[in-house]
Input
Amino acid sequence: MSLLSWLNRILVVLIFLAVIGAIGLRYIPLIRQNQVMRADLQTQQDKVDHLKAEISRLESEIRALKSDPRTVERRLREIGYARPDEVVVTFREPIRQP
Output
């Protein structure tokens, strides 16, 4: 093989590597953008899952409030209501003197 043949092969390999490198440089930002978007998608999916669990909990609480009188009474007591014949006692934190 002659020197010209070797140079042609080297040139073809270098052109091939240049094309591959150019393609790689073109798509590296897109790959990074894709990674960021996938991370954002996962974050949003986690929020959706959390909200679905919250909805389920609230629906369960609504069902209990509609059907269980003890649940209604407990919730009313939590916000300060009492029966007419009861005395409500509340405890407060003592005021600390410096």
Q: What stands out?
A: The chain has one domain: 3-78.
